[in-house]
Every structure is written in C-alpha cells, then in structure tokens.
Amino acid sequence: MIAGSKGTQKRRIALIGWLFILPLIIYFAIFQLAPIIMSFGISFTEWNWRGNPTWVGVQNYIQLFTNRILYPDFWKSLWITIEYMLLTVPLSVVVTLVVSAMLNSKIKGEKFFKSAFFIPSVTAGVAISAIWMFLIDPTYGVVGAMNRAWGTSINLLGKTSTALPLMALISIWSGLGYNVLIMLSAMKNINPALYEACEIDGGGPIRKFFHVTIPGVMPTIFFLCITSTIGALQAFDQMYLMTGGGPDGSTTTFMLEIYNMVFGYQEVGTASAMSYILFSVILVITIVGQRLVPSGEDRKARKKRGKYEQKAQPAHD
Amino acid sequence: MEERMKGLFTKTSVLLIALLLGLASCDGSSDDIITFWAYQPSTQANQNAFRALVADFTEETGIKVKLNLVVKDSFNTALNSALTGRSKPDMSYLDQPLIADYASDGTLTDITSMIAASSSISTDSFFPAVYQTNIYDGKTFGLPLNVTASVLFYNKDLVTTPPTTWADWLAIKNGLPAGKSLFDGIGNGGYAGWYFQAFLANCGGSLLNDDETGVAFNDAKGVEAAQMIKDLYGNDATSIVNRGTSDAFGNGLVAFKLGSSSDIDRLDINFPSLDYGVALIPSESGGTSYSNMGGENVVVYEHSDLKSECMTLIEYLQREENVRQLSDYTGNFPAISAFATSDDPRLSIIIEQMATSVPRPVLPKWIQVNDAYLGPALGDKILSDENPQDIQTSLDNAAQAANMLLF
User: Fold this and answer.
1) Does the CB of B372 have a partner CB in chain A at under 8 Å?
2) Closest alpha carbon to A147 in A132, A136, A159
3) B203 min Cα distance to partner chain A (Å)
4) Is the Cβ–Cβ distance between B243 and B185 less than 8 Å?
5) What DSSP string runs through B360-379?
6) Where are chain B's structural domains?
7) Which residues does chain B have within 8 Å of residue A137's beta carbon, measured at their own beta carbons?
8) Cβ-defined contact of B367 to A264 (cutoff 8 Å)
9) Do the Cβ atoms of A267 and B13 come within 8 Å?
10) Sign of the alpha-carbon torsion through A118, A123, A129, A131
11) Rounded distance, CA A259 to CA B113, Å?
C-alpha cells in the first residue's frame, strides 16, 4: 500500500517535470530536431527550394570534395575558418584569463572595468561592425587620421594579410565580456585558503596564478575552448557585414560560403551537405578536446592544485 | 493539487496542439483573392498609396487582392520560402536575373498567349532589352515593370567635360590633383560581374557566344574590357586607399563612379555640396554607349488558379499613371519607354542610356556564374591590389566553371 502510494507520488512528480519541459521539447522538436533531420535528407538531393528535390545520393559530398572548378571556395573557406579558429580561440582564452585575473585581484574600479568589458557583448553585431568599419576606414576614423598624419596607406580590410586577423581581433574583443564574466565567477569559487597555502610555500602572484588559479578554472577553460571553437567555426555575421568575404575571399568563412550557396545560388542540397561537413568538423574537434582534457582538468593541473588543497585542509579543520 | 496539475497539463497540451494545428492550417492564399507580393516602398505614405492603388483596382474590377509588401533586401529569400510552403503568392515582382531559374523549373506561368490576347499590352512598347529579360526558351514568363541602367557619375570639380571614349577617360587621370583618383571601382562579387558587362558591351563583346552554347567573356574583347577596368583602377597608393574608402565619390576623392537612379537620391541627400554630373558610359571608340541594366519584372505563378485575374491586375499596373507611381517607389523608371520621362537632366541621361542597355543572359544559374565565378575573377583576381593575376587565365578559369554549370 505504501509502496503503491510512493509509486503514484513518483509518477506525479515525473508528470509535473514533463509538464514543465514540454514547451521546450515541442520547440526543440519542431524548430531544431526536425530541421536537423530534414537537412540531412536534403544533403543527398539536388534542390533549388521550389520544385521537388531530386535524389542524388552522395554526389553533393563528392562534388564538394573533388570538383575544384565548380566549388573553388570549398577547401579555401574551410581552411580560412580553421585559420580563424586558430587565431581566435587560444588568444581569446589567454586574454580572458589575464583580464579575469586582473579583475579578480581586487583592483580599484572593478565594477567599471567589468561593465566596460561587457558592453560589447550586449551590443548588436551590426553596431559593432559599423563602429569598427569607421575606425579602420583608410581615409576617415583612426586609421584614416594615421594615414593622413604619417602619409601611410594602411587599409586593414583591403589586404588579404590583415583582414582575417582583424576579424579575429574584433571577435575576441566583442566576446571578451561574456568570457570574462564566466571566468571571473569560476575564479571567485576558488578556495582562498589555496592561495594562502601557496603564499606560505613562498609563492608569488605568478606562481599563484599558474599553480592555483589555472588548475582551479581548468573546467571553465575547457568550456570556453569548446564554445569559442564552435563559435569560430560558425563565424558569419562580422564577415558578412564588414567584408562580404573579401578581399580575394580571405575572410570567406565556411558559414558564409554556406549562406551564399543557399541564399545566393539556391543550391540547397549542396549547402546542406556543407552544413553536415561543418557539423562533422565540430564534432571531431569537440571529441578530440574532450580526450585531451577528460574531466575539464588534466592530471597535471589536478596534481598542482591537490598539493595546496592538502596544505589548506588543516586551516579549515 | 494533483487534479489541478492534471487539469493544467491537459489544458496546456490541448492549447499547444491547437496552436500547432492552427499554424499548420494557416494559408496565405484564398480561392478568390489574388495574393500579390511586391517590394515594400520605404515610406509609410508610399506603402499606403500602394495599398490604395490596389484597392482602386478591386473597386474597378471586383477582383480582390491581398497585397503583401516585403522589404527588397529579403524579398527573394522570403519569396522562395513562401513558394516552398503553403502561403504561395499568385503573382509577384521578380528580379530580372531570376526569371530563367523560376521559368526553367515550372514555377512561372507562360503568359505568351495572355499577352497576345491583351488589348492594352503591346510588347513593342517596352524598352526592347528589358522585355528580353522575360523570355526564356522562346516563351514569355513575365512583363517588365520598372527598370534602370548604369551611367557614369563624374565630379564636376575634378572633370569639366565627361569622356566619350576610353582613351579620353584614361587621359583624365593625368590632370587630377594630389590625393584624388580616377575611378571608384566596380566592387566585388556580383557587382563586379554585373558592371563588367557594361565595359564588355562598350568594346563590342558579349557574355555569351552567338549561338548561346557557351560563355564568351574570356575572348579577346573580354580581356580588353578587363584591361580597361584595370587601367582605370591604377595601382598607386592614392587609388588603392580611395577605393577602400566608404563613399569615396560622395566625399570628392574620386573623379568617376558607375551608378544608377538610386545613387542620385542618395548623393543629393548625403552629400548636398557635391557638384556632380551624369553622363553616358564611354565606349571604346566613341560610338554607341552601352550599359548594363537592372529592374523588376512582374510574373504569374503556375500554381495559381487566378491567372487571368492576375493578368488583369498586370494590365492595370502597366497603365501610365500607375506604373509611374510604382517606379517612383523603387527609384527606377517605367519599363514602357514612352512613360519613362523626366525633367531632371541627370535622370534623362539614365533614360537615354536605358535605350542601349544590354540584358543579362536569361539562363538558369546565371546569378551563380556572375557572383561565384565571373565577379571573383575580376574583383578578387584581376583587380587585386596585392596579387593581381593574369587577365586571360582568370577569365578562362571563370569561363570553364561557367560552361560546366550552364551547358
């Protein structure tokens, strides 16, 4: 009897739980899961959006990988995206760590700096692009003033060697506030006794940073690496707004190429195939990342932190 | 509590299912109402005027019309989505280069016989090249509504008399003051491909060969046209910096730019002190000046049950007072040559230029050729500031891809 009522209670709780997540499940099923499954099917067809799709098997995938005449930008845009990822992810994590550590060191005006760093994160991408375009305009703005004053002809967006690094810098700058917020909350959660233990051991700020802070925020670093990587591989809006993929396709990311394919040329099947290729790349990178840092904190980092945890323990007892 | 939760659960589920069913059954078209998609005029007053124009049509004919005004920038995407779903329009505006794509897959209705039967529409009344943009596979799939052509804008502070030959045009560079450059450029991607056609036509070349079995933009004339653009660009630091500047022409940094009617409004509003003129695009030897063109056609969809009613609406829209009104919304001109008039000398030049404008090839996937192969070959390879590539090789590569895709 008691067991029966416990079972009813359990079912009731489960029912209430399902009720709460039902809207999200419906939303996910209709607007995310269904398009994901449908686009997988579409990737095996030739379709212009209007008529009936024609089944072509794996032709889209084969053509993309092998036909350099019809798809001259496929490999190029994939490489540019990886290059962009390699530029943004490490630098973004390093800058985030440094800025967060500075803000965590009880500096004056912490709130002001936090707000200042966070403003770009809540600013629309279009506004950010417009501001940067003005700043780096070769005739007006800051770069224009430099060109006039020094007689130079700096045109950062007009050169293949500088356009992509500039895009990466803007992306790091605009995402810094969000990353710092996450990192800072992780740093605040580190047991202060660990820093004291490190100090007793004769550790200075640098040693504290590398032996306490870094191991303590390793799961957050891992999280930022993964999210930044996914973000970099899906980079689109800045390039679309600021360069249109130029000069000479040097900022044509994979997502921009997918956009052109579907909205410019109405090659929906090919664009879907490209989306799944990008999905595979992201999946591989995420799995490799997880293997490299299995629990978000590697053994070495755990060992370093553990040393001070042992020393800090008596202080709490 | 449990009963209340169960009740809430049931009500929520019913509500969601009803909502989904409602969305699924939502259909923009109705059996006896024409659904007409058009570009949304930029001002509220013009949007109201457009709706009033359509309301007058309903009053006159008794045919009901549901007018769907869509912002031009997202028009093609929204239209494609609508044609895939259930909210299909019966008729709509359609950008010139899309006619072949939509006609080739059976989306558009062949209106050849309806035009022949019409007492108010004469195909001879349109600018000939503009009318050609509606003909695919020998059949007519639309009628031109608005049109414009590219012309040469020149800064009167830097140029006293606009050039008529390529040699004159290039010679002006020598007389420009320091910090000023000759030409604003042809842009990148699709724009580069589009403007290239004007240069090609002005030296006697064309995008396709005579029997339309292959592209011809990589022949000797194509190379000559590309070389001319390259010469206009120049590779000095001033030219490179000015080309990378926003609105270099408006800011008085360059002597010439290519543009059309919409640029006149933009320059007048944003750069009121700029003293500029408009001229025909110079030809190689000073003969007939040719240009490229852009504009909107109006089409009827094959799935529509109201084809003859749609044709009645098209006839109504083509009336002089109506088509003038619609052209004003886009800044273009009526496609019927007799209605394309203006007192503004700058606009008159554009109208004159329209008479000798050349249409883009009416071939499915031409946009892809223009945007993905020809445009990048010009903007990114041949005209690159950093690593300019050989003209013939770049055009040959683009031609190889184009032929593979088109033929």
Assistant:
1) yes
2) A136
3) 27
4) yes
5) PP--TTHHHIIIIIIHHIII
6) 33-148+294-358, 151-280+365-406
7) 244-246
8) yes
9) no
10) negative
11) 38
Place of tokens 């030897």: B285
pLDDT in tens, A44-78: 999 988 878 899 999 999 999 999 999 998 999 99
User: Does the beta-carbon distance from A155 to B12 stay under 8 Å?
Assistant: no
Element counts in chain B: helices (H) and strands (E): 17, 13
Q: A61-316: which CATH topology?
A: MetI-like fold (1.10.3720)
How far apart are alpha carbons A204 and A196 in whole angstroms?
11
Whole-angstrom Cα distance, residue A155 to residue A166?
Answer: 11
Pick from B180, B176, B215: which is nearest to B196 by CA?
B215
| Strand ranges for B2-112 from DSSP E | 33-39, 64-70, 91-95
Residues whose CB falls within 8 Å of the CB of residue B403, separated by 6 or more in sequence, listed in order: B214, B215
Nearest Cα residue in chain A from B79:
A50
3-state secondary structure of B63: coil
Interface touch A50/B83, C-beta < 8 Å = yes
HSE at residue A88, side-chain half, CA atoms within 13 A, is 31
Q: Residue B29: pLDDT above 50? A: no
DSSP letter string, B270-335 = H-TT--EEEEPPPBSSSS---EEEEEEEEEEBTT-S-HHHHHHHHHHHTSHHHHHHHHHHHT-EES
Kindly report the number of other CB atoms within 10 A of residue B398's CB atom.
28
* Region B364-389 average pLDDT: 92
Q: Is the ipTM of this complex over 0.85?
A: no
Distance between CA A32 and CA A70 in Å, rounded? 31
Domains B33-148+294-358 and B151-280+365-406 share a fold: yes
Q: Shortest Cα distance from A49 to chain B (angstroms)?
A: 6
What's the alpha-carbon Rg for chain B, to the nearest Å?
A: 24
Whether B104 contacts chain A with CB within 8 A: no
Nearest CA in chain B to A20: B9
Separation in Å, CA of B284 to nearest CA in chain A = 28
pLDDT at position A286: 83
Cβ-Cβ contacts under 8 Å, A246 against chain B:
188-189, 379-380
Specify the CATH architecture of the domain B33-148+294-358: 3-Layer(aba) Sandwich (3.40)
pTM of the model: 0.82
Question: Any idea which of A159-173, B10-24, B247-261 has the lowest mean pLDDT?
Answer: B10-24
DSSP string of B88-154, one letter each residue = --SEEEEEGGGHHHHHHTT-B---HHHHHH-SS--GGGB-HHHHHTTEETTEE--EEEEEEE-EEEE
Which residues of chain A are under the pLDDT cut of 50? 1, 315-317
Q: Using the 8-state DSSP alphabet, how is residue A71 labeled?
A: -
Structural domain boundaries of chain A? 1-42, 61-316
- Written as one letter, the residue type at B244 is G
Enter the DSSP assignment of B250: T
Residue type, A125: G
Q: Nearest 5°: phi and psi at B300?
A: -115, 140
| pLDDT for position A110 | 76
Q: Which CATH superfamily is domain B151-280+365-406 in?
A: Periplasmic binding protein-like II (3.40.190.10)
pLDDT over threshold 90, residue B4: no
Look up residue A162 and give its DSSP letter: H
pLDDT in tens, B274-311: 999 999 999 999 899 999 998 899 999 999 999 999 99
Tokens of A210: 């590398």
- Nearest Cα of chain A lies from the Cα of B97 at a distance, in angstroms, of 12
